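writing this on my phone so excuse typos. first protein, seq and then structure
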Amino acid sequence: IAKKNYTVSEEERLISYSEFFPKASLNLSYGISDTVYRFDLKDLLDSSSVRVGVSISFPVFTGFSRSLNIIQKSYSKKSAYLNFLKMKESLKVEIENFDERIKLSKNFLESSKKLFESSQKNFEKAKILLQNGELSTTDYISIEKSYMESILNYLNSKKEYYKTYYRYLYLIRRIK
């Protein structure tokens, strides 16, 4: 986007130079007199008229608005270019730091997977203990709650890992 903004500002600056050129316009009109009620070709041609006009205008003095417009467009171009460079550097820094971010999200994914697996085993044991009457319903609900939380935690860590990975691939493709 920053690159396109820079390109647009460059084109706007070039267009602003056109304010110094003369402007020409061409007018062409064709008319038929309203006194003709018959559609006779001869009468139609006799009572019709064609007008052609050309006008050329060149503003002599506009209070320096044209020059100021060019200066403003030049500054806009420079600003867009600096924005583009800033965005490019920001993306480079983000890509350089992605290795760490991917490692962190992968470690988080692995730890949440281990937590999920152990929580799943505890939940299966709790089911058996509840059926045998060796576990209270309150304890069972607490174990079930931690099991459900571990599922959510695992799914969120998966989502974050893939989101980080695909952001990395996207940025690598965009930076080139």
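second protein below, same order as before
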Amino acid sequence: MRNILALVFVFSTLLSVGQSDTLSLDSVMKWVDDYHPVVRSLTYKMRGAEAKVTSARGAFDPKLAGNFSEKLFEDTEYYRYGEGGLNLPTWLGVDVYAYRSFAQGTYLNPELTQPDDGLWRVGVSVPVGGDLIWDERRAMLRDAQLIVERTEAEQRIAYSDVKFESMMRYLEWAQKEAELQILYEVEQLARERFLLTKRAFLAGDRPEMDTIESRISWYNRKLKVQDAQAAAAQARAKLSAMLWTEENIPLEIPSNYHPDLSSLNFVSPPDSATMYGMLAEQPQVAALTVEVDRALNQRRWTRAQLWPDISVKYNILRGAGADAAWNIPDQYQWGVQVNIPLFLRKARGNAEAADNYYREAELKQQDAVQKAEAELFGMQTMTRTLGNQWLQSLEVYTMSERLLEAERRRFIIGESSVFLVNSRENAMINAAVEWLKIRKEYLLSIERQKRLVAAYWDQ
């Protein structure tokens, strides 16, 4: 099954990579963008947060309401009462409503007495206590809106982590493949040197010790190649774990595919001022800033609960008959409802908890800002250092190759020994491995800066 999926991967990426055996970094990043499960899940996470906003807005939905009751006993209609209407909640906490009611019966409560055609009641319910300042409906809606902002910051964090992880695994694979190529070339040259030494020994031009030493050197190089092959295969498998199909099936990079080493060139580090400018929108800081805003929202609501709970209702009344008229000064109904807890322990406790939550969130946000600035400064310092080391280690590697090539020519004409050639080879291999390591770390140091400020999200 994995082989079939590998073929699917090959044919799907041929057009984007240009060569049948080379997998470019851009094509890997594009594949991760399109099909990685974490990246695809971000859409659903945002939809879930937006659904909470929709749910919170439901508290402000207009509502149709009605009720009906009737009592009939021993052929006597005691009462028959019903009403229906529309209630319109508003952002300021004021409810506007309009109802029509009717009431009749032998033993009708005098309070419900009204014209035979029924009664219109249009009015408002106004909180004049804490709910006028900030009520639960507004607090819940604001909190849901802030959750959307926090989710966006979390999206940027998750997306940047996936992109960086993919980049890191690709560069690791590229490093191991490059080391394998160098070790394979050295192994082939060691084999040729052994055969040359063997022929020279049979001709009487070289001692037997040189033949043994060159053979040992060849075998050691073969062992190194085998280790490098295993390391490259392991790195390729780790990168494969980042690649999925549209049907959410994992892919495997075929063994005949290789990274595009020619594209891993030296690039200038990102502009320092630009990175510090983007730091203001750093996602970890942004997420904590949202938490501060949520804490402020909660504190505002809990402090509003310290006020008395007072609600005033005023209704304008009019008969439902065709000849009825609005007589505002003379036909009305109003009332006041007051609810004041004597000790306010619940409200005071909630307010104190909200204050502590706000202070905690604010301190965490300030700490995150300072850490992000320090982290970016350290990353930029490391990038500059690795940039200098890239050029220096590349020069050492180039000079080591020249020395090795000169030593090999001397060996061919009999002016050098197997020991000296092996020493030059070891020095060249160490220089190559060091340069490849620095190249990977330099490119990763740039990507770490991008991940810190979530630059991937804006690309």
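The CA atoms of residues 298 and 373 lie 29 Å apart. thats all i got for now
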